Amino acid sequence: xxxxxxxxxxxxxxxxxxxxxxxxxxxxxxxxxxxxxxxxxxxxxxxxxxxxxxxxxxxxxxxxxxxxxxxxxxxxxxxxxxxxxxxxxxxxxxxxxxxxxxxxxxxxxxxxxxxxxxxxxxxxxxxxxxxxxxxxxxxxxxxxxxxxxxxxxxxxxxxxxxxxxxxxxxxxxxxxxxxxxxxxxxxxxxxxxxxxxxxxxxxxxxxxxxxxxxxxxxxxxxxxxxxxxxxxxxxxxxxxxxxxxxxxxxxxxxxxxxxxxxxxxxxxxxxxxxxxxxxxxxxxxxxxxxxxxxxxxxxxxxxxxxxxxxxxxxxxxxxxxxxxxxxxxxxxxxxxxxxxxxxxxxxxxxxxxxxxxxxxxxxxxxxxxxxxxxxxxxxxxxxxxxxxxxxxxxxxxxxxxxxxxxxxxxxxxxxxxxxxxxxxxxxxxxxxxxxxxxxxxxxxxxxxxxxxxxxxxxxxxxxxxxxxxxxxxxxxxxxxxxxxxxxxxxxxxxxxxxxxxxxxxxxxxxxxxxxxxxxxxxxxxxxxxxxxxxxxxxxxxxxxxxxxxxxxxxxxxxxxxxxxxxxxxxxxxxxxxxxxxxxxxxxxxxxx
Length: 592
Known about the structure:
The protein is of the alpha/beta class. It has helices spanning 3-19, 54-68, 88-98, 130-148, 164-176, 182-185, 189-213, 218-224, 226-239, 243-267, 277-280, 285-294, 328-342, 358-370, 404-422, 430-450, 462-465, 473-489, 506-516, 518-528, 531-551, 560-583, and strands spanning 28-30, 39-42, 72-78, 81-86, 114-118, 152-159, 273-276, 298-299, 305-308, 316-320, 346-354, 379-384, 387-388, 458-459. Helices cover 54% and strands 11% of the residues. A five-stranded parallel β-sheet has the order 7-6-5-11-12, sandwiched between helices. The two termini are 40 Å apart.
């Protein structure tokens, strides 16, 4: 049981003994910096149950705690706040209990049920872009946080590898590609295919302009441009299983997959299972038929099938067209059910998809609940805002998209420029420098994106993200490297037990309190699907360590016991930083 739980129970015992009242809850908060204390009990909420002066009530509870709880050293009351000072020995006992745990803060994986986390889910007609970066970093980090909180996790993506947009790239390559391949062009496969997606759009616009010049209405020209009609015909052939079209589709998709794999590797994300829309687009139709029989869905006069969600504040939603073909919703229903068939231990899913799809997922989750699936109660849409650059929005059709590979490369170059200006890399080989630039650049990118609440829109500034001061990845990485430097210089003795009679410096105590919060933060981040809680916890811990570093002598401390403890404390802070950053998918360098 944690100290806060112990304190909470003793406060309830005190109120019962002193005032003959059962207190349902006790409200705690950290003691303000300008008052003496480690934890504060807020007395005001008790006044609904206990009549009296809050200062007097606080003082009486404080006296009770000092008498009945050995960890409580002393108490003071400021207005309606009971500030409690905890004995140093409590924190030192805590430190001894966790200092050798390499997985401190993580919970052993439970065998009861699993969660599937979906992220990335790109189209195979273009490379990954800045929006995909936020999607991948969020999904991957949430999956790692859920694992650390004790959940079994499957990471997945559904690849949108079919449809008119895919045929546009294929047709443009046929027309303008002259047999070009990734090998002959020197381009990554996804970049090559994306080039022809842009080429299609350019040709399409030119044809529309020509038709308009020839006297056709623009709206009609947009529908009847020859290249669009050809793409539509290619899609029909693909759906009919035309050998030549399917062969071209497989070849160009294979180029894209090779490109994606490189980007994922560079980004540091992975997957346990891949789903393909070409395999799943027919799923769900049988489910709709079953739902019709159960009365979940209804059929309109034209034969189309719908669900009425007006009682839930939504509207009617089509799930099957009049010709019997599926819509995206049908496919998503079928895919969700297929995933549980593939992984029977799944009892929840997380969908990492931008906030423009908020309505879609409300409808999807409601439908699955109405169909009677128990796991549908544990579905979550990890909705996130867009990412903008100072240069503005992205349009992939026009070729103005911010490419993920280019951005990662740009981050490395920015890290190189800033590191060179700071002159921190004397004695490094070129290979070591290159590796470090990559670690700093990618860490800066990931941290800048993940420190923000997922629902908020981000204006991403590469130069600002690589700043070595403030709430940035490089600032935290630099503190970790500083700790490793201390450990390299320290004498042996890091494994020895810390004497609990040691008198703690105020800064040591604050650090221990920060370390103590890590397991709770991991659980909170898992419950809220929020890497931002981990990122900002780490920043607070690092700020506390730097304050400790500036005000307390570590290696220069003459008292051997104190010196060894401070080295061990620094080591543990480093381990927590590394563990927290691992949940964000960020590496930490041994030297900077």
